[in-house]
Amino acid sequence: MTTASICTIGDEILIGQIVDTNSAAIASAFGAEGIRINRIVSIGDDRDEILSTLRRELERSDIVVTTGGLGPTKDDITKGALAELTGAKGYYSDSRQLDIIYRILHSRGLDVMDINKAQASIPDTGETILNKLGTAPIMVFRIKDGTYGHPATLYAMPGVPFETLAAIPDVVADIREHTGLEAICHRNIMVYGYAESALSEKISSWEDALPEDVHLAYLPNPLTGVKLRLSIYGGNSEDDSKRLDGHVAELRKILGDAIYSEEEDTLEHALGTILRENSLTLSAAESCTGGEISHLITTVPGSSAYYLGSVTSYAVSVKEAVLGVDPDVIDRYGVVSSQVAAAMAQGARKVTGSDYSVSTTGLAGPGGGDGVNPEGTVWVGVATPTATYTKKYEYHSDRKRNIQRFASSALFFLLSRIREDLSQKK
């Protein structure tokens, strides 16, 4: 199996000034290709440390990827270290990257200075993959087997996250072209409503019956649930795909509606797909989630085709005046109740004219308890063309995480109700 190490470079990571998201993105993309990550290392802007770390990782791995340290300022020393590491005699300028540098800086109304032009200079031991969104190209160094005991490839990528994300597919394509990657077959199954431990227990018999060459990974995320990834390495991709189809079909019988997608997905994207495919519209009435549901829904490209809008009815007065919630219902049952969640969803659907509406009313904490419901309680309402449904969820985390889980649970409950409606129409 091809192996890789990821090295992030920059003092800003070590002092906590920025969070390293590049390593996770690279590791995920490489994992999908069957490349095993040996190590993820963060190092500062120190030439000796960069050199010693890269030599060590090149000995251990077939591929080493660095991010960071390729900017135009004096503290960006990675390029010089890479030139020394690979025995470069000089530099050459990549005219294609230089054109991109001019275009980017001129679009920002900035002059192109010598330090900007220098970013297109590459050690003569390297090749370039264009950075279409930034000024520093991706540098590729192919190292013969005599140096580290095996052939190795070093990729130097920019540290700016959106530039790294955009360049990952090009790096993966280069690896495919120059490295003998073994065949790999994956299936991703998105599950919501189970903690990782509970899910493991639920499917334990199914998991125990998997053949030895079928690998199962649990990848939990509080916002999207648990992603189950089935993989077969080194086989025949067509035959393996059929085998995995059979295992997924068995899993579907066990988990049923808890599976909301059979590809790498998010709740908001899966919801958007079913709404768009069935020409349905949606609105929201949010209290304790404060717009989080609306935010998630509108992160999906094309959401304007089905999402009409929302009412963030944080105050009781807005629940009553805008959504039409009966004050007597609030007095009798309390703000955090099934009855109020139902009335909010119905009100949003009436105000917007949407086919479906989802609502939340709850206690994200800390403080503000109502003496009945504990902190971390949310009631979710879903108003459909024919009925209204409510469901209660309880979580025990900090305020931010509670709000995120409230929103995710609301999306899943909504998605489940829409699927149930559609299945009854068939």
Q: What secondary-structure arrangement, pairings included, does this model have?
A:
Layout: E1 3-9, H1 11-14, H2 22-32, E2 36-43, H3 47-60, E3 63-67, H4 78-86, E4 91-93, H5 95-107, H6 114-117, E5 121-123, E6 127-129, E7 138-143, H7 145-148, E8 152-157, H8 161-178, E9 184-191, H9 196-202, H10 204-208, E10 214-221, E11 225-233, H11 237-255, E12 259-261, H12 267-277, E13 282-286, H13 292-298, E14 307-312, H14 316-321, H15 327-333, H16 338-352, E15 356-363, E16 377-383, E17 388-394, H17 399-425
Parallel strand pairs: 1-2, 1-3, 3-8, 13-14, 13-15
Antiparallel strand pairs: 4-5, 6-7, 7-8, 9-11, 9-12, 10-11, 15-16, 16-17
Helix pairs in contact: 2-8, 3-4, 12-17
Q: What would CATH call the class of the largest domain? A: Alpha Beta
- Overall morphology: globular
**Residue-averaged pLDDT, rounded?**
94
Structural class: alpha/beta
Brief write-up:
The chain is an alpha/beta fold and 426 residues long.
Structure commentary:
- The chain is 42% helix and 24% strand.
- With 426 residues, it is an alpha/beta fold.
- The chain has three domains: 3-178, MoaB/Mog-like domain (Molybdenum Cofactor Biosythetic Enzyme, Chain A, 3-Layer(aba) Sandwich), CATH 3.40.980.10; 184-261, 2-Layer Sandwich (Alpha-Beta Plaits), CATH 3.30.70.2860; 269-425, CinA-like (Maf protein), CATH 3.90.950.
- The protein has a six-stranded mixed β-sheet, sandwiched between helices. Strands 14-13-15-16-17 form a five-stranded mixed β-sheet, with helices on both faces.
- The model has no long low-confidence stretch (mean pLDDT 94).
